Amino acid sequence: MKFNPTDICSPDVAFDLRFRDILKYQSAENPIYGKFTQALGFSGVQLDQMSVSQIPLLPVEAFRDARVFAAGSHPPEIFFRSSGTSSMIRSSHHVAYASQYEASIFAGMSYFYDLSKFVVLGYTPGYNENPNSSLIWMIQALIQADPSGLSRFLSIGAPPASQLLDEIRDSGRYVMLFGAAFGLADLAESHCIHLPQGSVVMETGGMKTWRREMSRADLHQLLARGFGLPQSHIHSEYGMTELLSQAYAKGDQWFMPPPWMKVTIRDPYNPLCELPDGQPGLIGVVDLANWASCPFILTGDRGVRRSDGAFEVLGRWSSYHLRGCNFLLED
Amino acid sequence: LIVHKIKPESVTSSNQYLSPEQIQSALNLWLEGADIPDAPLYVAIRRTIEEGLFSASDVHFAVAHIRDSVSDEQPRKWLERVKSLLSQQQKDHLDHRITQDVLCLHAGNLPLVGFQDVLAVLLSGQGYAGKLSRKDPYLIASFIEILQKQYPWMRVKCSIDLNTYRNHKFQCWTFAGSDAGLSQVNHELLRQDIVTANSTSLQRTAHFSVAILAGWSSETKEHLLESILRYGGKGCRSVAMIFAQMRLAEVAGELSLAASVWFRVNSVTPQIPHVVRYRHAYNQSVGITSILVGSHLIQEGIASPDFPEIVYWQDMGQSGDALEKYRFAIQELYVDTTNDDKYSAQLPSVSSLLRSAQRPPLDWKPDGVDILSWLLEQNAMLRRS
């Protein structure tokens, strides 16, 4: 293994140092990223001198259109596939080293939360039902790491048993309840659930499949009411099949990445150009934990960044409105 | 010279609207001015080009197309055709008096876009109030100038400033644009009392068109390139997706060559946008076939229409899913003239000819709606109420 997983995800190792090493590694060992940067006209020497705000970001569709892999002949240890209907061509992430994903999950969580104080509950399909979901793999890893045995996947449609909640209360710990936005909203509306005070509801996205029109703020209000928690305890996770690290929003709309993950907002009309803080554009992610696939990703999400590195997700980049008549008030 | 030729007509009765013959006369006078220095259209064309709003080629093409489409009394024929389809009750409610002004919100993505709306409003016997785009402020205005001079009593006006129409409370308005911006426009119009909550509107929001190629010939190639390259691909009639029997690689060489001829003939120096370079590099890295045709990129891969300069080439067999997915965004489905009979069963029944992509007839139906018919119905309803 070229890089040590724990080192990559250590808050104590300078980002720039690792970034340089991985950039060099990617241009040499990732055939797709290498071809991409060459086709853009950049030499290896030029790339070596680039910063996060300058480097070419590989469109995330690459994980759908090709096999993005930079670990040579090492066979992938995990295979993730994005959700979607059977007729859709979905993204695939061949993860070379499970230990790298594990390191990223635990270092990321520990950076934002004191994991020893939480019992993890997953209101999602269980691992056996969906072993190719990177989210479920993460929840499974968190559950397995809890020696108390209280952490678990919940049955879909059923609230956590009151006995389980009592046991968690008695243990002096809190709940961290993971689930997709629409699933949690259904649960909150159909059952009266009071999680132990101090608990966190972790909404993992999925707003686009929610059966009603609802803003994220309204959803969080509903979840807070439904789970008997203050709204500041309704958190969000920003992650995707193609990334091994996650960013977290703790009670507001601003996601904060861990130290080995940086966000750069790019101009949709010129993705080589970074937009200044406060200006919306395409969310670009540099996730060093992805060193064995591709850590430089241009997502299809629209977002804006704050000067402290936090970012807000403004939804999917809607593209076809760029064509045709477009009456604009400012025109 | 043109302006001197105009003899203002006096009004014969209050609120009289323009007859098709009067409209045709104004159109002829306006178009005649394209080649006469100091005529309103000549000046408008010159300023549009000099200010870099559109290329000379696109402006002259748009004017020439309007000249063709209004020739042979096409405006009168359109009106007669639409009137013949109205119910007797609707006809009874139409007379020769202007009942209202119609507000037309014009986009500015291509020269003279929305000119059909202007003509339709006039033919429907209603007053015209246009909000012109700052990206195309002169061309339609030059026609309005002719109308105002020839028929000083006629209610026609235009402005690039929406505030001009504050408190006007239009009962009827038209819009062509993105559904994403529509709610903002609605809100602003209501806030300024430009329209009322009860006003009726025609909102056209289709974004792009699709070509279905069952065969391939030199005509197909020319028509396809015109449908892609004209107006920089920014029109809703511009082709964004192609479904073909053959692979892109089979015709890539021919297309590249023909595109270079197109740019030379149209005196346009193609500038490759950053996003096209980026996408081309990406396609090369993942093995997606794509070719640069001047400023544009035609590519295989999963279609997700986005930038006007990027066109998706798909296998004919994939057309069903894509047409379903984008049905609300598609303006026109074009078929080629060289279709082989054996493929005709696969072609959609609602389609028009590829050669007409950038040369639609005067009475073409954006978003499937005949605007003149819609305006006459609104007019009749207003009178009935």
Counting DSSP H or I runs of 4 or more residues, the number of helices of chain B is 14
> What fraction of the residues of chain A are assigned to beta strands by DSSP?
15-25%
Main sheet summary of chain B: 7 strands, mixed
Oligomer status: heterodimer
Characterize the structure shown:
The complex is a heterodimer of chains A (331) and B (385). Chain A has 331 residues and is of the alpha/beta class. Chain A has helices spanning 5-8, 15-29, 31-39, 44-48, 62-65, 98-112, 134-144, 162-171, 181-190, 216-227; strands spanning 58-59, 78-81, 92-95, 118-123, 152-153, 174-179, 200-203, 234-238, 247-250, 261-267, 270-274, 281-287, 296-305, 311-316. In chain A, strands 1, 10, 11, 12, 13 and 14 form a six-stranded mixed sheet that branches. In chain A, strands 5-4-6-7-8-9 form a six-stranded mixed sheet, with helices on both faces. Chain B is an alpha/beta fold. In chain B, the strands form two sheets. Chain B has a seven-stranded mixed sheet, with helices on both faces. In chain B, 41% of the residues lie in helices and 17% in strands. Classes of the chains: A alpha/beta (331), B alpha/beta (385). At the A-B interface, helix 3, strand 1, helix 5 and strand 11 of A face helix 9 and helix 12 of B.
Q: Could you give a short description of this structure?
A:
Chain A is α/β, with parallel strands linked by helices and 331 residues long. Chain A has helices at 5-8, 15-29, 31-39, 44-48, 62-65, 98-112, 134-144, 162-171, 181-190, 216-227, and strands at residues 58-59, 78-81, 92-95, 118-123, 152-153, 174-179, 200-203, 234-238, 247-250, 261-267, 270-274, 281-287, 296-305, 311-316.
